[in-house]
Amino acid sequence: MSVTYQSAPSASSQRLRRSLASAPVRIVVLVIAFIWTLPSAGLLISSLRPANDITTSGWWTVFSHPFETSIWTVQNYVDVLTAHGLGNAILNSVLVTVPSVVIPITIAAFAAYAFAWLEFPGRRLIFTIVVGLMVVPLQMTLVPLLRIYTQLDLNGTFLGLWLAHTGFGLPLAVFLLFGYISTLPSEIIESAHVDGASPLTTFTRLVLPLSVPVVASFAIFQFLWVWNDLLVALVFLGTQQDVVVLTARVAALVGRRGEQWHVLTAGAFVNMAIPLLIFFSLQRYFVRGLTAGSVKG
Amino acid sequence: MTTSAAETPPTSTLSNLTAGPLRIVVSLVVPVITFFLLRGAFIFMRDVNANKILVGIVALIIGVGGVWALYLVTDNLVSILPDRIRESIRPFVFVGPAIVILLGYLVYPTVRTVYLSFLDARSQNFVGLDNYAFALTSSEMLIALRNNLLWLVFVTSFVVSLGLVISVLVDRIGRWEPVAKSFIFLPMAISAVGASVIWKFVYSFQPIQRPQIGLLNAIYTALGGDPQGWLILKPWNNFFLLAIMIWVLTGFAMVVLSAAIKGVPAELLEASRIDGANEVRIFFGVIIPYIRGTLITITTTVLIMVLKVFDIVFVMTNGQFDTEVIANRMYREMFSFGNYGHASALAVVLLAAVVPVMIYNVRSLETSRR
User: Fold this and answer.
1) Which of A5, A155, A228, A234 could covalently link to A149 via disulfide, CB atoms 3.0 to 4.6 Å apart?
2) Complex confidence, ipTM
3) Which residues, other chains included, contact A116 with Cβ-Cβ below 8 Å and sequence gap of 6+?
4) Predicted model pTM
5) How far apart are CA A256 and CA A247, in angstroms?
6) Helices A86-117 and A261-281 sit at what angle, rounded to 10 degrees?
7) What burial class does residue A186 get, using C-beta atoms within 10 Å of its C-beta: 0-12 exposed, 13-18 middle, 19+ buried?
8) Distance (Å, rounded) from C-alpha B281 to C-alpha B279?
9) Chain B neighbours among A 231-250 (CB < 8 Å)?
10) Is B87 exposed, middle or buried (0-12, 13-18, 19+ CB in 10 A)?
11) Which of residues 189-228 of A touch B (CB under 8 A)?
């Protein structure tokens, strides 16, 4: 106790010195964070202003009288969700995203488990090739896949897009899941084997429940990747009203309605809403997943 | 995890119930039924006119259950084989689907694209290196290559150095650190399309006598300048586009580097302070060497992302006003010009640019892990 008592004054004076020294640093960081947030804030504020106001005065003018109710409206959101087809596009995006996340995780988890814990000839070689495929930029595959899809009538179908996202996501998923599953304690896996559990039972009852953290991280990464993807959706799904996803729809609005800012601002914010929600609620997994997955081709 | 819980009971009852010859019958019948169910669902989903909600439900059943069923059924099928063969085949039940999908979606298309890059626009006649001559020497492509180089140099250097500086600063602000980090990292959650709309609004241009609604022009005119159409201002428009990517990726670099900086042992820093080193010298002499591995990883990662940049250019200018980049040009060759030879050659150029960086990246990842 006496030690803490004695060291307390020096620690607090050190803290004081540090906080004084960090005051300018704090201001610099504050300014940077402010600049970084300003563009998004401008979009959010504008999306809540009447269409006419957006084009006749800057969004920052709302701060001169922020409590006047006439300067705020949700009409833009009502418009984009109904008249501009974003409601439908949200549904399409969900239909694209959920299987595009679940399928690659399932397939990668089975494969990663086999690579880590089952013996078979060529194991190391196959694993190296699978992970090595991360270097292939997905642009490399577009022309041949598009041709095959046209022959199989898979063009413009959700199924085609799920499989494409599965293929593009697999090398990274196997790489990440293997990194985790292979480090599980071998005693657990072996004792399950001794108890007579089949590899499948070991996998579903033991390995998968233990791998929840890495699965969650990859799931968030893959979710964001698919939800925010434009290129793959444009190539394999197209922009037909009945299948178009949110990003492609908003991109089309930008092209066609260059200056209709009330539509664009609300549309962009609808596109951003779910990722932002996940970002704020699951921040730890979110950051982990994004940083782990950033090498994706 | 609900999936495994929901799917496992049928298998165990199945194997309990079918100890004798019945087991073989069941093991053979179940795959056939599953096959026809999946095939029916496949055909149903290919039908674009099918009811949305219904497709959605089938989608979830296929997406979640179908894949699981595939593994359970094949595993069961393998179980009826004699012992020795069984255990040598089983691993391939687990890795097989992954291998098949990778062969179909990455290996075959890559080989095929290389082949197509030597054929003409409609992939009928062999044209030698013509497509590569176009990709590397035509005047339009030279602009695209120049722009990609601009993006590479400026985005990478700004993202890494800004990310580094911010991560060092943010480390010293105490309890506000997570909040500041959140706001700087936030653009990473936004799609490139969303980011493009945000910045199109910032760069928005109004004629001189009207009030400016774009932030940049408002500041510029307030300082006495005339409003500018930033996105058509050659060649500076490229910088306004790549600023968007800097905005998106800086937070990402900051988070990764910040984690590395927190790993620098406090004793090491204290020792240098006692030796009289000032903060700048500590930064360059202690912190940077210590996090060198992470710096390399983040730099190569950003390089790869920048090489493949597509969405921002596609949405902002679609490559007009001399802002073209390789990936966007490739998309236009496919869909606007229908020139598959050009598109394939551009893809190969991208691959050739990405592969060395990626190999370097994975190598340094592996050494840092050991």
Assistant:
1) A155
2) 0.84
3) A178, A181, A182, A184
4) 0.84
5) 14
6) 30
7) exposed
8) 5
9) 231, 234-235, 240, 242-243, 247, 250
10) middle
11) 198-201, 203-205, 208-209, 212, 224, 227-228
